[in-house]
Description:
It is a single chain. The protein has seven helices and no strands. The protein is mainly alpha-helical. α5 (75-85) packs across α7 (105-124). The longest helix has 20 residues, at 105-124. The protein is globular and about 40 Å long.
Amino acid sequence: MTSRYASGMSVRRSVLGDSHVDRAEAAKTDFDLPFQALITEGAWGTVWADDSISRRERSMLTLALLAATGNFEEIPMHIRATANTGATKNDVMQALLHVAIYAGVPKANHAIKLAKQTYAEMEENR
């Protein structure tokens, strides 16, 4: 295990929560091990570990980029992560309004639908 992997796993746990990471780790196989190492070291150990911008800002950027590129599957996960990063519902809405203007209303509309559903689930599970 590299120090970047260890740092990435620590950041990943603090952003996504232990339960999420434990489930992902339990589902890991020999086939996806290289991919899991890549995202742990690259996304979490390099990008998310950099303190040049706050985790709140990274949440907003991540959600906007996921929506703008039509990668909707990870939006609920990153909405749940806002509970740990400090990005508020208003922050998320502002990011998604930018998506509407710069990447398209349908993409923003779908991302907002997913965010609403996820926030409702989060409220139910409190």
